Amino acid sequence: GDSVTQMEGPVTLSEEAFLTINCTYTATGYPSLFWYVQYPGEGLQLLLKATKADDKGSNKGFEATYRKETTSFHLEKGSVQVSDSAVYFCALSSGAGSYQLTFGKGTKLSVIP
Amino acid sequence: NAGVTQTPKFQVLKTGQSMTLQCAQDMNHEYMSWYRQDPGMGLRLIHYSVGAGITDQGEVPNGYNVSRSTTEDFPLRLLSAAPSQTSVYFCASSYGIAGYTGELFFGEGSRLTVL
What we know:
Chain A is mainly beta. Chain A contains no helices and twelve strands.
């Protein structure tokens, strides 16, 4: 079945540091890939997505590229801020006819001033 | 713009009690779902619905019932609560069958503790 593996946290960075959160997946067919973010005390919200190989999703300075050859969708940001402190979830949707989003376990990011 | 609204936000139950978590959305989404979030487990799908009158099981459906009588509402029922159901529950909605993309809109969550 489908699965998502993302790097274990927590991750602690200083403000303005470079961020990478690794995500790899296993899926049949041609999945869509997502990064969701959960700020403290809130529900998840979509951060970015990519629907086909080589697509790059981007939002709020975050980027991730859909790499089919390495089955990866790593999240990156060049300069993190304290306000980026949150839990980040990688997820996939298998595609037509599947209504289940498969999530990774989440990576907690803390950014210190 | 309310989006997805869940009630209650917090609930404490005793083992064997029943309760219903409410979920309502005002975006006319056909797809609605319930997830539970447990430490170190990510989010796991409990039940989902692709329209009024249509429901299906997700990854962890045991101990939970759902129904979908209207487009707006998708309640989750625990008939006999167990400590293993202590979790944070999220309702999420999305566009329906033709437009489903995996882009979900989440509520703020309901934290349930079963003693």
